[in-house]
């Protein structure tokens, strides 16, 4: 019931608020570990979130986990995707770090984690969706190894974002307008934008729209 009413009871990424501006925050996020999958949305009937199932299977959210080690990990939020529709890549490509893990053996249940990042800068027509794993996984080698070779585990470095929060349905037009407003505010206040925006959604789709928590995030220096 709490999820329907928008209550967020799962782990969210720790961050430091560096500045509070007019309708936004500047946040610094520490390094973390991510699971990611690169795919062509056309293969998922044009759905940019189509890769969700592959990653959800890796963590065991939809049944038997497709990974190693028998350990259940608490679910976290938000889910992060690209803000497609503005004519440019709309998510941040995060630099590759080592190690990278792609294979494994016996399954380990890993609960849903966040954020999930969809990155459409990989190649023309390609999208990369990313789940950030729970904070207990400090290094890539700590995470359970995926049994699906399409899933890659890697370390994400520290990053800084300008973030604006809003409620309701995160429709394409709404997200684009929020991102444009955030970008204008950041540039007005002297921040250097380092890339396109990403969208963070903290609630499942059955949450009542007025009670949903969403954020647009733009990487800054």
Plain-language structure description:
Pfam families: SOUL. It comes from Setaria italica (Foxtail millet). Belongs to the HEBP family. This is SOUL heme-binding protein. There is one protein chain. The chain has 221 residues and is an alpha+beta fold. The protein has a domain at 16-28 and 159-219: Phosphorylase Kinase, domain 1, CATH 3.30.200. Helix content is 11%, strand content 25%. It has two helices and ten strands. The chain has a six-stranded antiparallel sheet, covered by helices on one side. A four-stranded antiparallel sheet has the order 5-6-3-7, with helices on one face. The longest helix has 17 residues, at 172-188. The chain is globular, with a radius of gyration of 17 Å. Mean pLDDT is 78; it is low at 83-106.
Produce a short descriptive summary.
The chain has helices at 52-59, 172-188; strands at residues 16-20, 25-29, 32-39, 79-82, 116-119, 127-132, 152-156, 159-166, 198-201, 214-219. With 221 residues, the chain is an alpha+beta fold. It has a domain at 16-28 and 159-219: 2-Layer Sandwich (Phosphorylase Kinase, domain 1).
